[in-house]
Amino acid sequence: GITALLGNPPWLEKPPRLRTLRATVDLGGHRFRCTWGQTRNGETVDVRPIPRDIKTPEELKLPGILPDTLAALSGGLVLFVGPTGAGKSWTMASLIRHRARIRGGKYVLVENPVEFLHEDTDKAEFYQMEVGKDVESYGAALEDVMAQNPDVLVVQELVDRRSAENTLSAALSGHLVMATMHSQEAASVPSRFAGLLEPEDEGAYKAALYKLSVCLEVIVVMRLMPGHNGLVPVFEVLTMRDRPGGQRINKLVTLVAKGDAVGIRNEILMGGSRAGMMTMENSLQGRIDEGLLSL
Q1: Is the pLDDT of residue 128 over 90?
Q2: Distance between CA 153 and CA 110 in Å, rounded?
Q3: How far is 175 from 157, CA to CA, in rounded Å?
Q4: Interatomic CA distance for residues 236 and 16, integer angstroms
Q5: Is 236 left (phi over 0), alpha (psi -120 to 50) or beta?
Q6: 62: how many CB neighbours lie within 10 A of its CB?
Q7: What is the pLDDT of residue 248?
Q8: Which residues contact 176 (CB under 8 A, 6 or more apart)?
């Protein structure tokens, strides 16, 4: 069982009703992210290594628009989207470190579990909280951390209405908020986000879309593809400005406010490249041209 692998870590001391547990564990000088579950066939555990060094955007081969945009932003909402294991945590850690180096500031991270460890610098200070250990839930943590007045708030995962509500509120109040959620493509994210907030009331759903359109800055969709020398990241990127630090694209703001997935998709396809946007197909073809992978 898991205790044979990890001994008896404190995070296993949970109520039986919690059927899935997540934690980071230090073993022999290495850190691992562990996800433990209980099925009718017994225990399951997924163990993934977490590197201690945070890679740069260049080392991770991130689109150049991302570090430039994150460094220029002082507020708004940035969403990282993709399945589990797509590299969202690696990407966020890299961009956080990049922005902290350039802009400094106060960073509050709410995670489950805490993965990459950020160290304070002369310009930046970091506060990392773990759900289930330091705070009860994402929603409760977000209510508490706003009193700390962070420059940047990082929410590892939007899991329910309360966490989405508090995340949106923080972004609307002028904080820069970075969060992850699950979706298949950038165009469907606004409707999915609004659905977390108001899944049934049509009027409130439309109001949620409008609020999102006011503060949304970037959507990054991620996938990892098997390449010639390991996994290769491919991206879909939606940016709400014509350039880093530039003017908001009014047409996109309107499309997000309407939850118009078809219109958003067309905008990325037709004119988005001028603003640094890209489709997953564009990114995939770029990786092929770079010789990193082949179909």
Answers
A1: yes
A2: 8
A3: 17
A4: 40
A5: beta
A6: 23
A7: 95
A8: 73, 74, 75, 76, 78, 151, 152, 153
What is d(CA 295, CA 278) in angstroms, rounded to the nearest whole number?
A: 19
Report the alpha-carbon distance of residue 170 to residue 75 in Å, rounded.
9
Find out whether 159 and 20 touch, Cβ atoms under 8 Å: no
Distance of CA 97 to the CA centre of its chain: 14
Give dist(CA 129, CA 133) in Å, integer: 8
Work out the widest C-alpha separation in the chain, in whole angstroms. 57
Is-contact 149 137, C-beta < 8 A? no
- Other C-beta atoms closer than 10 Å to the C-beta of 39 total 8
- The token duo for 295 is 């179909």
> Which DSSP helix (H) or strand (E) runs through 49?
strand 42-50
d(CA 18, CA 12): 10
Q: Name the nearest CA neighbour of 168 among 215, 133, 117.
A: 215
Alpha-carbon Rg for the chain in angstroms: 19
Give the helix/strand (H/E) hosting 196.
Answer: helix 189-197
* pTM for this prediction: 0.85
Cβ atoms within 10 A of the Cβ of 114, count? 21
In 3D space, the residue among 180, 203, 202, 176 whose CA is nearest the CA of residue 193 turns out to be 180
70, 73, 165, 166, 171 from 255: Cα distances, Å: 22, 21, 21, 23, 19
Q: Which of 12-26, 99-113, 177-191, 256-270 has the lowest mean pLDDT?
A: 12-26
Is-contact 127 148, C-beta < 8 A? yes
- CB environment 142-161: b (16+ within 10 A), e (fewer): bbebbeeebbbbbbbbbbee
Q: Is 4 exposed, middle or buried (0-12, 13-18, 19+ CB in 10 A)?
A: exposed
